[in-house]
Please model this.
Amino acid sequence: MKNIGMVVAMQKELIPFLKSQNAEVISENRKDFSVLKFKIGDNNIICVNSGIGEIYASAATQTLIGEYKADIVINFGVCGTLCKEIKTKEVVLVKGIVHYDFDLSPIDDVKVGQYPGYSSQIIDTDESLRNAVLQIMPEIKEVVCASADKFVADEQIKKRLRDSFGASVCEMECAGVALTAKNAGVPVLVIKAVSDGEGGVEEYHDTVEQASKAYIGLINELSDKL
Model:
């Protein structure tokens, strides 16, 4: 039996997943967060609706680890695609994250996005958890995600994220989740579904609910097998 912590930014990303559950869902309020507890198979699921952005996501992750003793942290939700190869409503597995707003390069001999103690700009997610996903969905694409507190619709910014970091998708929470979990020695996994691309904000509003349904089966099966 494991305690699986889940960080989800928005209600619209979370509700389709909750609707798929047969178990009783217990709701708790912890300071600024709504915490939902239920079981999938033998595992305890503790899901925090964090709110949008890296700081909220980091605080939610620490709540899961510190108060609920999460053995694993999973971040899921929607993201934007940065390339034509990844389409809207496609589910992707994040193998690495770059917090592209973090920059110590003017004062230290590091690259933009590189944190102290890390050998590169890329923050890896847990390999064993990624392998568990690949056993369920072998065709899923593994990607680098550019993460920061910005909704990216501008094509020039998208090009910079592709060219500078090799990123294929972008979003606003997973750097905070990954850094907090890794600092605590807790394995972290990130799964995203694409809600927008060249269509920008308008496409996001049209697609976000459909994209949020795309990862339900994978998250449920994974949570039962871990």
Q: What stands out?
A: The chain has one domain: 3-225. The chain has a mean pLDDT of 94. The longest strand covers residues 72-81. The two ends are 9 Å apart (CA to CA).
